[in-house]
Amino acid sequence: MNEPARFRQAQQRRSRNAQEKIFEVSANLLKEKGPDEFTLKELSKLTGVSVGSIYYRFESKETLLIELQKKEYLQASKDIEARFLKLGETTTSLKEAIKQAGREYAEHLQIYAPLIRAFMKLALSDKIVSEAGTKIYKNSQALYESLLLKFKDEIKRENPERVAHTCFKILNTSLARYLGFGSLEPITEGLSWEELLEEVTEVQTYYLCSPDHNA
User: Fold this and answer.
1) Of 113, 117, 129, 3, the residue nearest 66 (C-alpha)
2) Is the distance from CB of 164 to CB of 155 less than 8 angstroms?
3) Which residues pair with 7 in a beta bridge?
4) CA-to-CA distance for 51 and 107, rounded, in angstroms?
5) Do the beta carbons of residue 215 and residue 158 sit within 8 Å?
6) What is the model's pLDDT at position 16?
7) What is the DSSP-derived secondary structure letter of residue 99?
8) Distance between CA 118 and CA 98 in Å, rounded?
9) Which backbone phi and psi does 58 adopt, to 5 degrees?
């Protein structure tokens, strides 16, 4: 599905409460079973909202999942923006920014990991879901790189913008593999979560704080 489908926004308080219940239970089912396994019949049973009422509000299950993604990713965007706003106010050096930004981004992904995994699976066949995922990824990337570039004078390599971008890719790829994004099973390589964060921080710090060999 590539075109936005029909969604009727609830207006009355009772309808809004039912709609929120639908979203809440849908999120839980999505995290538990993935996008292909749960049905609107099951959703109806768990929410007490009839299948007909669900279809009145959402044209299809795909419509429901798109609206759920919008809702969850809006909250996720607010979360990551608040984290980096605080870091921008409190970090005082490049090394501190590398460490704290990595930890905040990691905690953010860990919180939303079950939903991200489900939406990534859905994105393989849904352009709208895919584009929404790309948007929040690029927003996180921009926040991360902006924080590191606040300490541009401490970066020892040429082209600080490029190396800050590389650092984000190192971080995101490492965390994504560990959390199982885009794969059937998480790839931990024998590391604990804490060990992974320490290792990534060490690699990034060395990369940014060591001069280019050809400089």
Assistant:
1) 129
2) yes
3) 58
4) 36
5) yes
6) 83
7) H
8) 29
9) -125, 130
Q: Per-residue confidence of the chain (215 residues) as pLDDT tens digits?
A: 444 457 777 666 777 888 899 999 999 999 998 888 889 999 999 999 999 999 988 989 999 999 999 999 999 999 999 999 999 999 999 999 999 999 999 999 999 999 999 999 889 888 999 999 999 999 999 999 999 999 999 999 999 999 999 999 999 999 999 999 876 566 777 889 999 999 999 999 999 998 876 55
Q: Which residue type sits at 140?
A: S
Q: At what angle do helices 40-47 and 13-33 cross, to 10 degrees?
A: 120
Q: Is 58 strand, coil or helix?
A: strand
The contacts of residue 115 (CB under 8 Å, 6+ apart) are 27, 30, 31, 72
Sequence-separated (6 or more) residues with CB below 8 Å from residue 28: none
Alpha helices, H only, 61-210: 61-90, 94-123, 127-149, 160-179, 193-209
CA distance 45 to 4: 27
Read off the tokens for 95. Answer: 């090394």
Q: What angle do CA 71, 74, 79 make, to 5 degrees?
A: 130
H or E element, residue 57: helix 51-57
Can you give the pLDDT at residue 214? 59
> What domains appear along the chain, each with residue ranges and CATH number?
69-209 (1.10.357)
What is the structure's pLDDT at 1? 44
Measured CA to CA, the distance from residue 108 to residue 77 in angstroms comes to 10
